[in-house]
Amino acid sequence: MLILGIDTSCDDTSAAIVKDGRHVLSSIVHSQVKLHHPHGGVVPELASREHIRNILPVVEETLK
After folding, report:
1. In the chain, where do the E strands start and end?
2. Phi/psi at 52 (nearest 5 deg)?
């Protein structure tokens, strides 16, 4: 069985494919550290917009 997992933290957008619950076939993480660094911490509005911008490319790259 293949499982596609999608996760967003406050400043990361991630996706992975796992086979049989044990073997990671693909794992992609897009970090927002550079975006938030000038502000001294995570800015929720910026993080939200960045998740929207990144979720599809992250999932597409994971599925390649």
Report:
1. 2-8, 12-19, 23-31
2. -60, -40
Name the pTM for this structure. 0.86
Distance CA 40, CA 13 (A): 20
Tokens of 53: 């911008």
CB proximity list for 42: less than 8 A, separation 6 or greater: 10, 11, 32, 36
CB 17 within 8 A of CB 63: yes
Q: What are the pLDDT digits (tens) for 3-60? A: 999 999 999 999 999 999 999 999 999 999 999 999 999 999 999 999 999 999 999 9
Identity at 34, one-letter amino acid code: K
The residues, any chain, with a CB within 8 Å of residue 13's CB and separated by 6 or more, are 7, 29, 30, 32, 50, 51, 54, 55, 58
